[in-house]
């Protein structure tokens, strides 16, 4: 019996453990932190051996195969030992894909991947048997075990792509690339770019690659590297013979000689970036032979993603907006771009080497006050204090929302769009977003 060791007892780790056990592996789960009770219960009920708050090397280095959680970086000593012992390391998406013949749609990118994956799933589920997994929802491995759908939409991060060997989606989508997570890539942008492009590395000419043709980073990479799959770019500015483009408020999608045209002005999601997300999702749907009317209806009734430009409440004619999912500068760029009223902006958290310059035009034009919400706000204060009259600091979400309430006037927006990770003051971006919504409702 082959021994499968899983590092990390979260959603992907426990899903992999269940699938691995069913497929005949001897499974051991090890987590340096504490495993949540709900996951411990699953492991106990299925008689899967595990440990938490420690890694016992003797029980790990005798593995035939290691699945490591995407949150564990390569620089960790234990990972280096596993590599030195020549033990194969895979990610959950790689492991689960070995046990399914489903059609896989893999969506990656620095921003927009959750919205695009959710929107794609929303369209496809109207006519296909489809699961939504990866960075979102129940783990891919668990779904392969329990439901094995005919199709999957997978939201995949660069960390998940780092540990693939043969993972091959039928359709790969790359929404955009901007500097993010550079602390995991030796602060080299080119390493991060190469990681994102791993989504296409096993594709053949029978597969498809959908990408943003307006993104300079993607365009430069494609000039220098040969890709096997059929390219279906999308653009807001240029006509695309194959792929999607915008013409006077209409989205036009062409694949081979088959064209569909859809109105862009009735999209449920606002903002230019969401036109692109809609183009990507619609191109996938068109490829998978979903009817035009179904695509159109789905784009118009999609509810959006929690913590992504989510309207919370209007109080005294001030709109409160939760964009806690904006964990990098590029995501906040899209948020500020879509603001149509003077904005009180709540920003801050764990800075991943951020460069804020691209936000300056929007700050001059739209932002009336800035609330810095982080354990260390020095860089934000230094960067923005000359640009707006009021820059205030706080370490509490309740306090931040109370300050925003005082600073905003009728007709303004209050926008939580942190441009940073959340781990200094919050458990996760979801925790940060929920605390914001709770504080707004308590005003």
UniProtKB/TrEMBL annotation:
**Stored Pfam families:** Mur_ligase_C, Mur_ligase_M, MurD_N
What the record says about family reads: Belongs to the MurCDEF family.
Keywords linked to the UniProt accession: ATP-binding, Cell cycle, Cell division, Cell shape, Cell wall biogenesis/degradation, Cytoplasm, Ligase, Nucleotide-binding, Peptidoglycan synthesis
Q: Name one GO biological process term.
A: peptidoglycan biosynthetic process
What GO CC annotations are associated with the protein?
cytoplasm
Q: State its location(s).
A: Cytoplasm
Q: What is this protein called?
A: UDP-N-acetylmuramoylalanine--D-glutamate ligase
- Residues covered by the Mur ligase C-terminal domain: 307-420
Q: Name one GO molecular function term.
A: UDP-N-acetylmuramoylalanine-D-glutamate ligase activity
Q: What EC number(s) does the entry state?
A: 6.3.2.9
Main location per UniProt? cytoplasm
The reaction(s) catalysed by this protein are:
UDP-N-acetyl-alpha-D-muramoyl-L-alanine + D-glutamate + ATP = UDP-N-acetyl-alpha-D-muramoyl-L-alanyl-D-glutamate + ADP + phosphate + H(+)
Instruction: Name the Gene3D superfamilies for this protein.
Output: Mur ligase, C-terminal domain, Mur-like, catalytic domain, NAD(P)-binding Rossmann-like Domain
**At which positions is ATP bound?**
109-115
Mur ligase central domain ranges (all copies): 107-285
Annotated organism of origin:
Winogradskyella arenosi
The task this protein performs is described as:
Cell wall formation. Catalyzes the addition of glutamate to the nucleotide precursor UDP-N-acetylmuramoyl-L-alanine (UMA).
**PANTHER family reported in the protein's UniProt record:** UDP-N-ACETYLMURAMOYLALANINE--D-GLUTAMATE LIGASE
**Its annotated pathway?**
Cell wall biogenesis; peptidoglycan biosynthesis
